[in-house]
Amino acid sequence: MLDFSSDYTRPGHPLLVDAIAKNQGTQFLPYGTDAVSSRAKARIREACRAPKAGVHFLLGGTQVNQLAIDALLRSFEGVIAADTGHISAHEAGAIEHGGHKVLTIPHKNGKLTADAVAAYCEAFYADGNHTHMVFPGMVYLSQPTEYGTLYFREELRALRRVCDRYSLRLYVDGARLAYALGAAENDVSLADLASVCDAFSIGGTKCGALFGEALVVPDPALTPQLFTVIKQHGALLAKGALLGLQFDALFAGALYLSIGKRAVALASLIRRTLTDKGYRQPLVSETNQIFLTLPDEQLEALQQQVRVSFWEKADAGHTVVRIATDWATTQDDVDALLALF
Amino acid sequence: MLDFSSDYTRPGHPLLVDAIAKNQGTQFLPYGTDAVSSRAKARIREACRAPKAGVHFLLGGTQVNQLAIDALLRSFEGVIAADTGHISAHEAGAIEHGGHKVLTIPHKNGKLTADAVAAYCEAFYADGNHTHMVFPGMVYLSQPTEYGTLYFREELRALRRVCDRYSLRLYVDGARLAYALGAAENDVSLADLASVCDAFSIGGTKCGALFGEALVVPDPALTPQLFTVIKQHGALLAKGALLGLQFDALFAGALYLSIGKRAVALASLIRRTLTDKGYRQPLVSETNQIFLTLPDEQLEALQQQVRVSFWEKADAGHTVVRIATDWATTQDDVDALLALF
Amino acid sequence: MLDFSSDYTRPGHPLLVDAIAKNQGTQFLPYGTDAVSSRAKARIREACRAPKAGVHFLLGGTQVNQLAIDALLRSFEGVIAADTGHISAHEAGAIEHGGHKVLTIPHKNGKLTADAVAAYCEAFYADGNHTHMVFPGMVYLSQPTEYGTLYFREELRALRRVCDRYSLRLYVDGARLAYALGAAENDVSLADLASVCDAFSIGGTKCGALFGEALVVPDPALTPQLFTVIKQHGALLAKGALLGLQFDALFAGALYLSIGKRAVALASLIRRTLTDKGYRQPLVSETNQIFLTLPDEQLEALQQQVRVSFWEKADAGHTVVRIATDWATTQDDVDALLALF
Amino acid sequence: MLDFSSDYTRPGHPLLVDAIAKNQGTQFLPYGTDAVSSRAKARIREACRAPKAGVHFLLGGTQVNQLAIDALLRSFEGVIAADTGHISAHEAGAIEHGGHKVLTIPHKNGKLTADAVAAYCEAFYADGNHTHMVFPGMVYLSQPTEYGTLYFREELRALRRVCDRYSLRLYVDGARLAYALGAAENDVSLADLASVCDAFSIGGTKCGALFGEALVVPDPALTPQLFTVIKQHGALLAKGALLGLQFDALFAGALYLSIGKRAVALASLIRRTLTDKGYRQPLVSETNQIFLTLPDEQLEALQQQVRVSFWEKADAGHTVVRIATDWATTQDDVDALLALF
To answer: Which of C74, C133, C222 to mutate to test the interface with B (most CBs of B within 10 A)?
Structure first.
């Protein structure tokens, strides 16, 4: 059966699986101290034009968010996020487990605006009782957002200026970053992220890797002893070379970018075709996700032939579903999918 | 160069790497809800003769210890461990990060005795101030221990009786469990563990897997909503099938056991030969680790040709080192190693 | 200067101060194990008609909320509260510091409705991703609310039925409980609270005591070793008799109730008079707090003669202020206040 | 019955009780923002010759330790303490509840030596695995110690030098500080503490106050937003003036010091007399506590006439007990006590 339910259904991109398989019996130094991991980190620093950046390989998206937030916040600080942010709703309280409140702001197409963040902070400091409240200490956003939309360079710079004004750190969750980098509309490079963020993640799991996220901290003085913090979080992989091998393959050439481009191109084709056929797309995504409102009967029939994701109920008789492409989606898959509409 | 430094230097056993590589492009349901993971869990339940057990796949040793301890303890309880226990010294405070104190007891050959635990608890409850202290809530031990020694069935049963008397949960860290199961002296089966423990782990990372530990909870009512707790800890793997594929391969037949047997047999050969050659072995390990006291000059020369682990300084002129075999160590490797002595 | 800014400006009711002063040199057993504390607890059990209840004396409102929530929730659970709830906004993240998320629901006059809680829980369990989210584990409400409004007996019973349906604990923050008990409209007795709640607090600090809140847990099996948890929270008072002496005085006769009645009667007089004079009261409080919208110039003039609390800006030219009476407010004070309008 | 069981049996010194009683109906600004609290803080700064110090009034000993340690440590750091330290054994895991490991070192007469701390740190940084371990981040000690012994100025300076060498903060728990300041042998002033410590507490609860500890942070930049952290810990007293009134009375003149001197003088008399009578005192205390080894039968008879504290069993037939004097002990009490021996 066709499966467009998500971008993390398949173990991994063949080049990454091969990198591991070829080295199946090679002996590496443990905990990421091996030479391949060092090389992979160097490649990422170069791609980000951030020669001093700390680069840390972690295992999954919630883990990297939880760790970065714990490492960058002080105990009396919380993190500002869109009410739709992954950390707000879908991480089972991982941030609160670390002791920090998620301070939610209404989103616009999944995005936070610099104005909304500034307004939040202004109101906070104007409140005579603010020392009885959680201080805003960070802005969390994701690129692309939960809704598949993109921040543009000027938007990030405006957010950075607000962060500077109110002593906030800026963290970007890049769980699906390849699909932002690969989007036609995108104008935010890795180097841009490194220049505006205090930390950001480069997602592997949803972008071709078996697992793994790279946490980039352009100024590593912000996160002293992060290796130990990672260990303390239960997040240190004994065989760290498994992460090094994968990120080395992703960043040796342009693989990471090309994975994104390919998936977005196919998603765009699906989007255009469905628009042409008159289907309603409630969210204007620009990346590898398509959101579609369908009558419930049509959805039921469709699900006999393709797996898609439930997103939310639109009304009594309609449902919003999500369709995702990934690095392995083929033109044939897309043709077969579109033939069902 | 020869490398006997640890049992987690190589990415993984060929059969496990193949299981992943063959399925590189297969689409699986996420978060361990796929059919292969279900089958792997069923195999583990069967191997443990624990048909109702909760089986949860996690990523690493510290993570599984931290999670099990958090899930099984109440806020006012701590965990009793040998002062040499991994959680006492080498997990960067992961247990305290979860809010629990590690209550240490001196070890005997790396082991806790039932008498020592009973004495601790008796003294605790006899202390008029004990409600101002951390209640013992669990016994943590590892099989094999940090020193490569083994608990025998009667020792575990005696510990269980003490646990019952003082309302303690019993948790066994099986990071290297294959090497216990594969030891000639061992009389503790997986089913024995399931019958005496409230929870235990079956280590993959150090026993042939790329990564992964199976947490077994014979009575799952003890750990409600553990899936959500795992997510909250940042410990949920999106592509859970990667763990399912590996544990399915390990437990489809006798692979897990045979990995242990083979490594222990070679370790025993090394141990015997070195003993015959008159080398001092300060710790009487029975599993895949050999501990050896060497004059510092000899060690320095040795390290030009083989990588071994520093364990501790014995005295001003001598050092204890650790030699470990694993699933991939060959007779040739062993011969080459022994030729150096 | 007149001061109607809050109900915690004065050290304490004369009878309570006297109870301490008279015993200034008496020697008591420590940590609340003394006879006076035992007698005070017995009086509270009797007043609540809860003969088996656990009664624990704590020091302040945030502390008792944080402790009760930590003690009653499991790690994967959060607490449902009105978005205006004290724990949501004004406790500096004390609940998240304990690892729990506050799950907010919009309020009606400061209150949560049973329907809103039921709808939240129904949506939660209907969500296919709910195991990736924080489970609702408790309903938090305050009696009276932040807005000075009251829950009625039938409303609490309806909330209890929802709690039973969804396995939620019900906790009532009674920081100002005397003023609820003393309100003309109130139909909720201490015994009613003990019959519907899993835990509730009886506030001392804002109701005549120097400091102190009594936490009542009708079924103490819900909170094992709570004494130790209190110690672990840094919340155990060495000289516990100071709390015992005060609660003994409050509950020896009807002092607690009469304190509330007196303050509410004067507040009602202020409310009625200001209404008669045409002042706008945006919140319909029934207890010891009056909320008043004033033109900014009038407020500025007023503040030369009486201290009131800023509540919020109503619009560009108007401000909402809070006026509070307490156990020490006199008819003369009220006359002097009303003469200013 | 005579009661020498501890120094926290009586509500409080008459001058402090009077300070509160006289102001029973005075209206104060809340949360310690009142003028009396400000004055009390100024007096403490002056007594410590630390004009810029942050001074924060808290409620109890465990609370102030937990708060100071949380505020001064980073997540990957633990606190070095004597194995007999209060935080090690008798705070119910309050430090671990805040996420930090207590790193214990054997004591000498209840004291840590600079050499022992230096040796711990040297061994830590020499350990090749130290990044997998909890970093030492602070030295905790108490003045006087649990055993009633004293640190001398040169000892504290030596500890400070070790702290500087290894980037440790130095925190002194002064729960019984008045009895150190009042000891004949003492050469450590408040100003000395302010010059060597990153933070220290001035205990009220055991030194004449009803309750209350002053936390002094000579360089307040070390603890940003500590007011909010206090609130988050549930440790902020609404009626902060109650603490201000007491510390104002203690530090307006020499009351704090004289309370200590008087109690120590009587304790010294008891010590000398018992020594002369041939009683064994296993711990050489210099402050307000006397430790005495008694045959069990004699102890049983004694306890019919005076309350003393159980300390520990010495051997099968002997017990160590503690006798404590306080600000209210009279010469008559002492004569009556000594008549029993």
So the answer is: C74
Specify which residues B291 forms β-bridges with.
B322
Check CB contact under 8 Å for A135 and D228: yes
Assigned token pair, C112: 């949560």
Chain B hits for D128, CB-CB cut-off 8 Å, are 310
Q: Do A75 and C90 touch (CB under 8 A)?
A: no
Task: Select the residue of C14, C235, C245 nearest D24 (Cβ to Cβ).
Answer: C14
Chain C residue numbers touching A132 (CB-CB < 8 A): 90-92
Q: What is the pLDDT of residues B231-277, one digit of tens each?
A: 999 999 999 999 999 999 999 999 999 999 999 999 999 999 999 99
Chains that touch C (3 or more CB pairs under 8 A): A, B, D
What are the φ/ψ torsions at residue D24 (nearest 5 degrees)?
Answer: -50, -40
Decide if A91 and C129 are in contact by the 8 Å CB cutoff. no
Q: How far is D228 from chain B (nearest CA, A)?
A: 21
* CATH 3.40.640.10, applies to B14-255: yes
How distant is the Cα of D4 from the closest Cα of chain A, in angstroms?
Answer: 41
pTM attached to this predicted model: 0.97
B142, B184, B322, C4, C260 from B150: Cα distances, Å: 9, 11, 17, 72, 67
**What is the pLDDT confidence band of residue C284, given thresholds at 50, 70 and 90?**
confident
Q: What is the DSSP letter of A82?
A: E
Same fold, B2-7+256-338 and B14-255: no
| Closest residue to B11, CB basis, from A26, A29, A205 | A26
- Residue B232, H or E segment: helix B226-232
- Average pLDDT (D193-202) is 98
Domain ranges (residues) in chain B? 2-7+256-338, 14-255
Cβ pair C24:D12 closer than 8 A = yes
CA–CA distance, B3 with A34 (Å, rounded to integer):
14
SS3 string of chain D?
CEECCCCCCCCCCHHHHHHHHHCCCCCCCCCCCCHHHHHHHHHHHHHCCCCCCEEEEECCHHHHHHHHHHHHCCCCEEEEEECCCHHHHCCCCHHHHCCCCEEEECCECCECCHHHHHHHHHHHHHCCCHHHCCEEEEEEEECCCCCCCCCCHHHHHHHHHHHHHCCCEEEEECCCHHHHHCCCCCCCCHHHHHHHCCEEEEECCCCCCCCCEEEEECCHHHCCCHHHHHHHCCCCCCCCHHHHHHHHHHHHCCHHHHHHHHHHHHHHHHHHHHHHCCCECCCCCCCCEEEEEEEHHHHHHHCCCEECEEEEEEECCEEEEEEECCCCCCHHHHHHHHCCC
Comparing CA positions, the residue from D80, D128, D122, D124 lying closest to residue D104 is D80
Instruction: Sort out which chain A residues have CB atoms less than 8 A from C97's CB and list them.
Output: 75, 99
Q: Which segments of A17-161 are extended strands (E)?
A: 54-58, 77-82, 102-105, 135-142
Interface test with C, best of B29, B70, B223, B225 (most C CBs within 10 A): B225
**Nearest Cα residue in chain B from A226:** B92
Q: What CATH number has the domain spanning D14-254?
A: 3.40.640.10
Question: Given a cut of 90, is residue C58 above it in pLDDT?
Answer: yes
Distance from CA of A84 to the nearest CA of C (A): 13
B-chain residues within 8 Å CB-CB of D132?
Answer: 90-92
pLDDT score at A285: 85
Q: What average pLDDT does range B133-155 have in this prediction?
A: 97
Q: Which residue, among D28, D25, D43, has the nearest Cα to D257 in the 3D structure? A: D43
Q: What is the largest CA-CA distance in chain D?
A: 63
Q: Select the CATH number that applies to the domain covering C2-7+256-338 from these four: 3.40.309.10, 3.10.310.10, 3.90.1150.10, 3.40.640.10.
A: 3.90.1150.10
